[in-house]
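Notes, Module 5: Reading structure tokens.

Key idea: the token line is not a picture. It is a compressed description, and you learn to read it the same way you learned to read a sequence, by spotting repeated patterns. We will look at two proteins. The first is printed below with its tokens.
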Amino acid sequence: MPLLAGRRAADHGATIRSMGNAAEARRSITDGAPGRRPVPEDEAAGGPLGGGAPEGGARTVGLSKVYGTGDMAVRALDNVSVVLPAGRFTAVMGPSGAGKSTLMHCVAGLDGATSGKVYVGGQELGALSDRRLTRLRRERIGFVFQAFNLLPTLTALDNITLPMTLAGTRPDREWLDTVVRVLRLGDRLTHRPSELSGGQQQRVALARALVTRPQIVFADEPTGNLDSRTGAEVLALLRGAVDDLGQTVAMVTHDPAAAARADAVVFLADGRVADVMDAPTADRVLDRMHGLGGLS
């Protein structure tokens, strides 16, 4: 079932129109992958997509993240410049410790950069006060955690609408009903997380990420705790959010079959962009991951 159920929201029309040529968008996803044309710094700042990350997309410029100091310092990200094009589904893969989740958390504004810049749409996150960053995360970013992060004392409905409750706003009832119907949660809205299966909890987490109509949805190993059937359903919903809504989705995964649902895959190794694959297949992703040293 299409996510919009026959209706496209007007505020996403501009996003869909701004997507431009899909192949060009995928080619511009990084300036550091082997075999790809290096993007000059001034172009990276503006971007071949026109003005940097298009509305709904995100990008990083020379992003580095270091944990600790001195001999204990760990460089999780090392000068990463990457674009997550608007209206596209991008997967992020790499061996354990490659920096996948760190990249996701930095771009989503959940963790600060040591150096470099992060943009969501045209907004540089490092230029925002804590209050404005909190507002941006609440209004323009959706995040689906592997561990669900649902509040145990709240019902499924209250968990879904929590971002708007915190913001003091009311949900668009028609859109809320559409999300609930598509995610098949109508008979579970009064249940608390302990009364839901793992797949139902993940659908509640996905509904929470979608209900505010964010510019971009980040999903960190969204199928990692699910059985294969439920995981396939969640991937289909993320794919549908892109195809039917023009949503921008970025997903960390270790599963080649999950990555094959994306438009492109960014491969990280040792905190750097190692490669980018357009139109991925599970077999091609699997081969590339073996070349990088694992699938963890």
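Here is the second protein, with the sequence above and the tokens below, as before.
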Amino acid sequence: MKRLYIVTILLCWIMLPLSSQNKKSGSSNSSIQKTTNAKNNTQAIKKTQEIQIPSGLFSAQELEFQRKEALKDVELTSQLLKETNAHAKTSLNRLNLLSQQLLSRKKIISILGQEIAEIDRNIKTMSHDIEILDKDLIKTKENYAKSMQSQQQEHRTAQYKMLLILSAENLSQSYRRMRYLHEYSDWQKEEADRIVKKQNEIARRKTELEKSRKEKQDLLAQRENENKKLEEEEQLQQKEVRKLNKKQKDLQLLLDQKRKEAGALNKQIEDLIAEDIKDSEKNKPVEPAETKPAETSPETASKPTAGSPSAKKGNYVLTESEVHLSKDFAGNKGKLPYPLTGKYTIVSTFGEHQHQELSHVRTNNNGIDIQTTTGAEARAIFKGVVTRVFVMPGFNNNVIIRHGNYLTVYSNLSEVYVKAGDVVSTRQSIGKIFTDTEKGNETILHFQIWQERTKLNPASWIK
């Protein structure tokens, strides 16, 4: 009988790892209660291990993207400044380029400051998390050391374990003791694995921390370098301002000439718009002779009527297709592409402005002036129909494209690829921008947007 009891216990010892995976039951045994407490501690430690560092990667990437775009602007402006000779006729344009470059440089410095602040926040967060992980590691090691010490004191040999099981009062108690020994052994293995994983996690976090600190040092060095360049550019700008102040008379004559040329272009555009409005009268439906209301059919309902906005006196009368084209154009406000190929920078904005550096200079622009590199082409910002191709002194070749009751004007072209009546698509090249070799290869596109007889700010429409 005693042999059968021992064999039964041995079988239970062998089968216990399988049964313990599917069966969990309580026990009043104090040793099993210790195992339960150990498991609870393990779960708490696991939760701590799942702490994620709020790195804010998207924000950092976005800042880096903005900084790189600003650097491209600075590089382009530097290239344009090298191409533009510093003689009297181009000095004002050089000053505008320098001012644009200073703005881009200040933007870079500002973004670098934001990037450094973001890295500082990440470093603080990572340092805090590493501190928590270090504390958890110490606690885990202490628990593991106590368990090993207890094992050495109480469970020194396999024979002792067997004696512990065989000394039980009954089979049920022997089974519970076997379960405890197996679970205690599994817990020790888990704790050992957890210590290794936690050490690896701390090492990884510390590597990330050092990387962030290195990035911060690089950004600090870059910001210092950008500040030095900013000081040099500000000195160059002041030098240009002093030069222009000495040549106020020449500069005023040049501005007067440009003002007259711009006025002539504006009048020409207004005259051509008036001609278009007059020609569009043929689209206006004939009003019925009788006063009684006429029945409308699907064919006549879509055509402009005398009471519709497009058919009001003095407005361009739209056809059905032009009504849809106008709506499409208006619906793309703020999303239209730039009216040229290649790299560019705006050197003169829309409207009347007091020059920020020259108190005696005041400019008025009906559109925007976009400076680009030699060989760049003008392109349509939206689908439409070419209504006019004409020449104007100071603006060379000019192209007007109608988009329903909206018009876009492309001025200062050396070559034109389209003619009146051509249907163009979005981003289609319509001509080559004029490069003035007498002004240091200055390549500027003058661009305007009109709605009927009203001039609009192109900056609000293009992307």
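Summary for the second protein:
- The mean pLDDT is 75.
- Residues 116 and 134 are 26 Å apart (CA to CA).
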